[in-house]
Design goal:
The protein is mostly beta strands and 215 residues long. 11% of the residues lie in helices and 56% in strands.
């Protein structure tokens, strides 16, 4: 972690035109087992291990007394009430490009490090799949999922709400994404729904759909 004395801030201003660095003010407001409440530049975030703020500050682990944060690739341990002023190199904005085929946007990615193919579906509230696809991904949905009923083109069907640890498309990876597992054989292709898409910026450019992480 890099703390800047007054002369350091002057140097930062002089180099601002040539260095991609950003000042950030962090306060640790609350600590619990596997959860931390941070205030970053005046905005509050609740993080669990592996989750990051839009500024790229990642919680590695936490208990009721201290938290381990990663900023700009560096990990440091901080007690409750810490006030941190530092700078970090903001990474390039991760993005994914999906191409349209026969009127639909088809793509590939991974769920929990297992490869998948999907169709972009902004009408689906969450990433949706059938039970065979869930089993291939190693999801024991009847044990870990919450039984629900969902409306589909074929009527109301029984399903299970689950949490997907990691979903990756292109350079974008999101953690703890809601998924829906439908009993039966529908949908035939996994639907990339709004539990993933809603956390991103979407830009249509001709036959391309460009997804970008929000900062």
């Amino acid at each position: 972690m890099r703390y800047l004395p007054p002369q350091g801030w002057l140097l930062l201003l002089l180099l601002a035109g040539s260095m991609l660095v950003h000042a950030v003010d962090i306060q640790i407001h609350g600590l619990f087992r596997d959860m931390a409440i941070l205030k970053v530049d005046g905005r509050q975030y609740t993080l669990r291990p592996g989750e990051s703020t839009p500024q790229g500050i990642t919680l590695i682990r936490a208990d009721s007394e201290q938290a381990v944060l990663e900023i700009d690739g560096q990990q440091e341990t901080y007690p409750l009430g810490s006030h941190i002023s530092t700078v970090y190199s903001r990474p390039e904005m991760p993005e994914a490009v999906i191409y349209r085929q026969n009127g639909m946007y088809y793509g590939s990615g991974s769920i929990n490090s297992q490869s998948i193919s999907f169709i972009v579906d902004t009408g689906a509230s969450a990433i949706s799949m059938n039970e065979a696809q869930a089993r291939r991904l190693g999801l024991d949905f009847r044990v870990i999922g919450d039984p629900i009923r969902v409306s589909t083109a074929n009527g109301v069907v029984r399903a299970y709400k689950v949490t997907l640890d990691r979903v990756k498309v292109g350079d974008i990876q999101l953690n703890n994404v809601t998924g829906i597992v439908h009993e039966g054989a529908s949908p035939q292709v996994i639907l990339l729904g709004m539990s993933f898409l809603g956390q991103l910026e979407m830009q249509r450019d001709g036959e391309r759909l460009v997804l970008k992480k929000k900062w």
